Amino acid sequence: MSAFLELLPGLRLEPLPARLPRPDRPMDPADEAATRFGGIAATAVHPFEVAAAIEAEGVTDRQVQRHYGRQDAFELAEDLYADTPRHYPEPEPVPSPWTAPLSASLLRGVLYALPGLAFPLGAPLFAGPADTGRLPHGTFALALSVLLTWAWNQALAHRAHSWLGRGQRRSAGRCLARGAAVGSGLGAGGALLAALLAERASGGVLVFCLGQALYLGASCVLLVLGGEAALLRALSPAALGGAAVLAGLLRPSPVTALLLVCTLGLTALQAWRLLRACRDDGDRGSAGDPKPPLRSSLPHGFFGMAMSLLTLGAALRGGHIEVAPTVALTVSMGPAEWLLYGYRSRIHAALRAAQSARGFALLSARSLALGLGSYLGALAALGGVVGVALTGGPSGQQLPGLLALGATIWTALLLQATGSAWTAAGVCIPAAAATVAGATESLVGGVAAATLLLIACRTLGRVTVHR
Length: 467
What we know:
It is a single chain. By secondary structure, this protein is mostly helical. The protein has helices spanning 2-6, 29-43, 47-56, 61-68, 73-83, 102-113, 118-121, 139-165, 169-198, 203-224, 228-246, 258-281, 298-315, 323-331, 333-353, 357-391, 399-417, 421-436, 441-460; strands spanning 316-317, 320-321. Strands 1-2 form a two-stranded antiparallel ribbon.
């Protein structure tokens, strides 16, 4: 034996260990399943998602029974989902589609208020005996004309935006052209009806109401189609002339009333140009696509009627016209629009950040409170500034009613923008009727605002509303 070993000089013999090492023990089936599918289970939102991943790996029910001791992939998925802590990765930031520059919203607020400067220029047209309730001559004719035109234009704007959202700009232009003509006729007919019923409105009042109805129709076209800059240029003659009359630099006369005709002509011209551009743009999509249903625009018309009644109720108080709160409320519609975009942008981020339904509801309520509080702060500041400019000082008695009305309008606009137009109209129409009937403005506005706020917190706290 030793001679044989000498023939292998490179061979070294090691002593045998006392115990041979045992082979690795097989992994526990539960640990193996957690290792293989734990990453999927940690990010899943339902056991079915884990089951789909197991089946996608080619694991059959027989293999699940043999290796993991479960009946099928669904039972294994349920156990994994229950035993694995949730760990959702942070979503990648996505730019919000709900963005709008503050300057554009402020410009729209100014455009809503500037037509008010036409009234000093048109003062000679309103000469005559006072209406019932000691209101200025022609107030009822003007109010009914505004009421009908405002309601019609709200529905018209919604329907035109429905066409634009489908990429059918030519159809939107055709809708606006026909709708603006009908709305102008409604406004003129409302003024004529009020004149016939009251037997007080003069021919000058009817002429002014006709011009106002035509202007509102043309301005609706410009605002829907993005012609804010053109509308600002068209308003310049009447705005500058009205400001000069208020400053005492001019006296209203039939000659200064020509500035109103100039503004009306420029507005109609700019609207016609945009409508002609829509006709040249054409439509995208199939010609057989269904039209937007008319009933979808109906609540927006009712909502516009309610808003006009609330605004008119706030303006016509105590036998005279309250100019300051009306101007402040009108100008505030610009910041209101921007804050509505802000709410939608924060909700877009909350949809990705919230990890539970309750968490999203809290984020929605916080965003709602931030938007409403910011708007009321802006409205209070505007009320003070406008009060100082027009009456020499802010009126503390008007502020509670103004803020209550503002809260009602902003919350209703938010509900309308998120698909609850019927709800907004259903709350605002009774509030408007109570205001016209003579109920206290702060009480009516407070009740309506509280009701809308409760509805908004409950409705907008659901994820499905925002998708």
